[in-house]
Amino acid sequence: MKNIIKPAGKALLTLILGTSLGGCLGIPENMEPVQGFELDRYLGTWYEIARMDHSFERGLSNVSAQYSQREGGGVTVVNRGYDESKGSWNDAVGKAFFIGDSSVGQLKVSFFGPFYGAYNIVALDQETYQWSLVVGPDTDYLWILARSTSLEKTMLDQILSMARSYGFNTDELIFVEHDQG
């Protein structure tokens, strides 16, 4: 069978695919990833405090993420959540890599082969690494993470205010229940 895509067509197709996939790695306008990021301090367990609704986490409670150094570079990501309707835990293992300089909180993460999504840390407790505000390529993706299963109300209110100032509709957030071990 003959190749029906001419070389110029292949270049255009590559450009279109690269642009559309690259769009998943951006950061929303008016936001910048944190500077002075220290991966060693970020590694370990984080608990999801709140998130925007997405099919890949729908119905999950007790959600946590475990970050560890990958052999050969990058980060191994293990997301875990409890599915009450099935009475079982769901685990998703992925990998993450810095998009640029490792002192900038901007990574790309993949749970599905060659497809990567944006993992932009736009706010972080850089003193003690106890909470983090992570966004995707647009205002449809937001996670509030913490080292414990809850945050003090004043701190949570400050993070929510920050998210609103970035253009997120915080009324749509799902606050994650943590009642399983």
Question: How would you briefly describe this protein structure?
Answer:
With 181 residues, this protein is α+β, with helices and mostly antiparallel strands.
Please write out the topology:
Blueprint: H1 7-22, H2 39-42, E1 44-51, E2 60-69, E3 75-83, E4 88-98, E5 106-112, E6 115-124, E7 131-135, E8 142-146, H3 153-165, E9 174-175
Antiparallel strand pairs: 1-2, 1-8, 1-9, 2-3, 3-4, 4-5, 5-6, 6-7, 7-8
Mean pLDDT reading? 88
The CATH architecture assignment turns out to be Beta Barrel
Rg from Cα: 18 Å
Number of strands: 9
- Give the overall shape: globular
Q: What is the CATH superfamily? A: Calycin beta-barrel core domain
Strand order of the largest sheet: 1-2-3-4-5-6-7-8
Structure description:
This protein is of the alpha+beta class and 181 residues long. It has one domain: Lipocalin (Beta Barrel), CATH 2.40.128. It has 3 helices and 9 strands; from the N terminus they run ααββββββββαβ. Strands 1-2-3-4-5-6-7-8 form an 8-stranded antiparallel beta barrel. The chain starts with 6 loop residues before the first helix and ends in a 6-residue tail after the last strand.
Name a few traits of the molecule:
Lipocalin, single chain
